[in-house]
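User: Could you go from structure to sequence for me? I need the amino acid at each position, not a summary. Structure tokens:
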């Protein structure tokens, strides 16, 4: 048996792609799912590594379609090596990395560079996302076709909004030709202005410049109209307001090809926490209000929001330990995403298999990769978590190079214990 063969015994296997939720064994042979069933009898010529998953939940490998790896160019914040180790520790077997590196991933040359680095440095699968416009400048389209040949799975100017609607329409048109999803970072940059937090009662109280919810919603609405016009596949990144949810729900009802994701922080924190002036609460789009959290929660439950992402956005201490106005936007997320989502299941807001689908099958469909399933013959990417384990977030223990988390010190329930990629154990947590 090769090192990418193993037997996982007695776990509660949840695989939404097969409507499965049952205590079963999984036999992995040479990196592929070979058998799945109760009390599997495996002929053993050689010793086979075994995982006793009794009491654990076993699912297809989790896929985060929104990660910032920072390499090339921002390696003081994160590298492909540290970011992907952070992914493995967070239970993720695949991630898609955003194009806002330096240089920007706007050509096949950078896409190839990332893929070569990944081949040597990463324990998990990495799917690069290419830029929509050259240098994320919003002026001319990036080399979409050649990046597609080099291996990108989607295009996005994430971090910035393509403000020129004509250019965004052109990108949507092109994307159809290359069968790529276009991911929208929806913030009208003029409405956002110099805002640093959600605009409302709290921004007035805290004396900080606000970003209105409409800054997001006008772009979500615009992009939905353009998706309708072009017939392209549009994906809304980090939806954060009740208004965005309503627009997406209505667009889906009308049959427009739109999908959406949410982040753990937008589902967990309100703009109230900005009152600490902890710059780790500064994120784009900004933390919103209770009614937004409720709308997002509901939207995941009813399928309006398809995927659960992390928006892992590492920044160094130097970039965060400054005045609120001057700090970079973003927070690390890979190592805290899962328990924050799982908390919604524990509070009975979501059904567990729905949550698993939003972390496996759905994200795989959005970026068009053959992942997110435990069907026989598929890649043995598997995430195993301990549903009962309580632990305290300690950012000094992160695998990520950065520690910009507002969740430091939080008590979490649910912990990834094994992350398996292509049949190989790439992360083993405390049991
Ligand atoms: O807060 C954010 N940080 N939002 C983004 O869209 C980009 C990200 C980053 O790259 O730091
Ligand atoms: Zn973004």
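Assistant: Here is the amino acid at each position, in order:
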């Amino acid at each position: 048996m090769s090192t990418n063969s193993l037997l996982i015994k007695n776990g509660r296997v949840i695989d939404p792609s097969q409507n499965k939720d049952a205590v079963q064994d999984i036999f992995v042979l040479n990196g592929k799912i070979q058998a799945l069933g109760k009390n599997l009898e495996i002929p053993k010529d050689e010793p086979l590594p075994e995982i006793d998953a009794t009491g654990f939940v076993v699912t297809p490998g989790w896929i985060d379609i929104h990660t910032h790896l920072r390499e090339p160019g921002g390696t003081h914040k994160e590298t492909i090596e540290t970011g992907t180790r952070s992914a493995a520790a967070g239970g993720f077997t695949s991630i898609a990395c955003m194009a806002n590196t330096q240089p920007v991933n706007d050509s096949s040359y950078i896409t190839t560079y990332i893929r070569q680095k990944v081949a040597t440095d990463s324990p998990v699968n990495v799917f690069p996302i290419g830029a929509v416009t050259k240098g994320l400048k919003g002026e001319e389209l990036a080399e979409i076709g050649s990046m597609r040949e080099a291996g990108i799975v989607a295009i996005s100017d994430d971090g910035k909004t393509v403000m020129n609607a004509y250019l965004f329409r052109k990108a949507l048109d092109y994307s159809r030709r290359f069968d790529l999803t276009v991911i929208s970072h929806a913030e009208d940059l003029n409405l956002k202005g110099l805002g640093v937090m959600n605009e409302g009662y709290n921004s007035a109280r805290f004396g900080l410049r606000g970003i209105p919810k409409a800054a997001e919603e006008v772009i979500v609405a615009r992009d939905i109209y353009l998706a309708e016009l072009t017939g392209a596949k549009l994906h809304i990144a980090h939806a954060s307001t009740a208004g965005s949810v309503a627009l997406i729900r209505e667009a889906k009802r009308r049959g427009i090809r739109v999908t959406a994701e949410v982040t753990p922080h937008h589902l967990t924190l309100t703009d109230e926490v900005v009152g600490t002036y902890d710059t780790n609460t500064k994120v784009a789009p900004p933390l919103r209000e209770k009614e937004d959290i409720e709308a997002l929660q509901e939207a995941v439950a009813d399928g309006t929001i398809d995927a659960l992402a992390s928006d892992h956005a590492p920044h160094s201490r130097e970039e965060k330990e400054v005045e609120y106005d001057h700090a970079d936007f973003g927070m690390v997320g890979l190592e805290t995403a899962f328990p924050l989502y799982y908390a919604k299941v524990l509070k009975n807001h979501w059904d567990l298999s729905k949550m698993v689908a939003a972390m496996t099958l759905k994200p795989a469909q959005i970026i068009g990769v053959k992942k997110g399933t435990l069907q026989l013959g598929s890649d043995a990417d598997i995430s195993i978590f301990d549903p009962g384990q309580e632990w305290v977030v300690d950012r000094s223990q992160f695998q990520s190079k950065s520690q910009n988390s507002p969740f430091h010190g939080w008590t979490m329930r649910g912990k990834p214990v094994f992350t398996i990629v292509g049949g190989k154990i790439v992360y083993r947590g405390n049991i």
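One structural detail worth keeping in mind: Residues 206 and 275 are 6 Å apart (CA to CA).
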